[in-house]
């Protein structure tokens, strides 16, 4: 079966105020122990039928660890799961933690896609986000990746951050376009529980950007990126032809994936399960030959249908409906109204959102789910 592999590398120089991922600050002396634990966990899944078609090393900051340790993890994946000869192998990097030599080492290991966490191109905006790197670091990291021979580079940007002017956001987008990456991810800032930003919000020190500005920002960004030749193939993602993120595309289209490492999530055989977020507990479990799993959920048919609809509608290709679902939608005045105003298109049994619909994807997905449920 097709299989995606996510490897979580949690180490970070500091915890960003908006980050809700499982991260570990410092602990440089335990990088090797963690890599060994990852290899053991991968080995424990050797019974899965592969090969692995995509690998994504995320974090955390994978570029914080030595490339040799990443090589150990990839070698374990090859030995126990098997890597497809054309596997997409992506590595997240933070500017300021990479140089040409490190990129060259990653490329020599078989990594063929780099995702740079730029976030912004104004130093003041980066400081507002609690980032340690500078805009110059982003430029240097991008140039170093190209110099090392990477032909598939993605940049991440964070939109709709309170305190960041629209002019500064426009500058960041325009600068990102000027670098000509193959892929851009544009994420609106969400304030997650348990983060520093969430604490500030409770204290009245931080308010989210108002909805009309969020919509205006995303509309402007979409227009700029599409005009620059990028395909808006998923709500938050843009790519040049042939450069969609194959790994993330698997998430949105229901491809099974195995997640290994601290707090990693998996979806296999209709079950979703996840690892402990406790660093010491994870290392102890792998050292003692125990599963690090902290919980699991068997996906009920109604939940599977809902997730298929929601995830599919995030993409430009939409979702294939059943005959029953088509019948319920075509018999609904609410659906007819949404179609008439240009938010969605139903062709045969495939439903997709338009560019205008993408901006309202969450609300539209909820409404369409109600239509299917209620008939």
Describe the 3D structure.
The two termini are 35 Å apart. The protein has 375 residues and is α/β, with parallel strands linked by helices. α1 (31-44) packs across α10 (279-287). The chain folds into 2 domains: 3-252, TIM Barrel; 301-374, no CATH class. Helices cover 42% and strands 23% of the residues. The protein has helices spanning 31-44, 67-80, 100-108, 123-128, 135-147, 166-179, 196-202, 211-227, 246-252, 279-287, 301-313, 323-330, 333-340, 355-358, 361-374, and strands at 3-9, 11-12, 24-25, 52-59, 83-93, 113-119, 153-159, 183-188, 231-234, 237-239, 257-260, 265-268, 271-275, 293-298, 319-320, 344-347, 350-353. The strands form 4 sheets. The chain has a 9-stranded mixed β-sheet, with helices on both faces. It has a 3-stranded antiparallel β-sheet with strand order 12-13-14, with no helix packed on it. It has a 3-stranded antiparallel β-sheet with strand order 15-17-16. It has 15 helices and 17 strands.
Which key terms come to mind for this protein?
alpha/beta, TIM Barrel, 9-stranded mixed beta sheet, 3-stranded antiparallel beta sheet, 15 helices, 17 strands
In brief, what are we looking at here?
It is built from 15 helices and 17 strands.
């Amino acid at each position: 079966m097709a299989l995606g592999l996510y490897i979580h590398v949690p180490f970070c120089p500091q915890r960003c105020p908006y980050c809700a991922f499982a991260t570990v600050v410092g602990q440089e002396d335990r990088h090797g122990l963690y890599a060994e634990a990852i290899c053991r966990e991968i080995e424990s899944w050797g019974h899965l039928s592969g090969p692995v078609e995509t690998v994504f090393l995320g974090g955390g900051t994978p570029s914080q660890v030595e490339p040799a340790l990443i090589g150990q993890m990839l070698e374990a994946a090859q030995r126990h799961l098997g890597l497809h000869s054309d596997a997409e192998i992506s590595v997240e990097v933070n500017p300021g933690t990479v140089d040409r030599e490190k990129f060259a080492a990653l490329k020599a290991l078989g990594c063929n896609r780099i995702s740079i966490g730029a976030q912004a191109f104004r130093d003041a905006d980066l400081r507002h986000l609690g980032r340690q790197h500078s805009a110059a670091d982003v430029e240097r990291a991008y140039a170093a990746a190209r110099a090392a021979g990477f032909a598939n580079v993605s940049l991440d940007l964070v939109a709709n951050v309170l305190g960041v002017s629209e002019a500064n956001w426009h500058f960041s987008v325009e600068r990102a376009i000027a670098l000509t990456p193959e892929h851009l991810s544009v994420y609106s800032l969400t304030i997650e529980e348990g983060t520093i930003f969430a604490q500030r919000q409770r204290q009245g020190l931080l308010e989210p950007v108002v909805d009309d500005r969020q919509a205006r920002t995303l509309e402007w960004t979409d227009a700029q990126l599409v005009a620059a030749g990028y395909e808006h193939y998923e709500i938050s993602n843009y790519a040049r032809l042939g450069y969609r993120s194959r790994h993330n595309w698997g998430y949105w289209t229901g491809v099974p994936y195995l997640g290994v490492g601290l707090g990693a999530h998996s979806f296999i055989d209709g079950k979703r399960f996840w690892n402990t977020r406790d660093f010491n507990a994870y290392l102890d479990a792998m050292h003692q030959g125990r599963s690090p799993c902290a919980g699991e959920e068997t996906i009920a048919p109604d939940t599977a249908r809902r997730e298929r609809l929601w995830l599919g509608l995030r993409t430009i290709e939409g979702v294939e409906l059943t005959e029953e679902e088509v019948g319920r939608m075509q018999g609904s005045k609410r659906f007819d109204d949404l179609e008439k105003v240009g938010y969605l298109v139903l062709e045969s049994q495939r439903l997709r959102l338009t560019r205008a619909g993408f901006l309202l994807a969450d609300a539209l997905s909820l409404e369409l789910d109600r239509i299917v449920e209620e008939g």
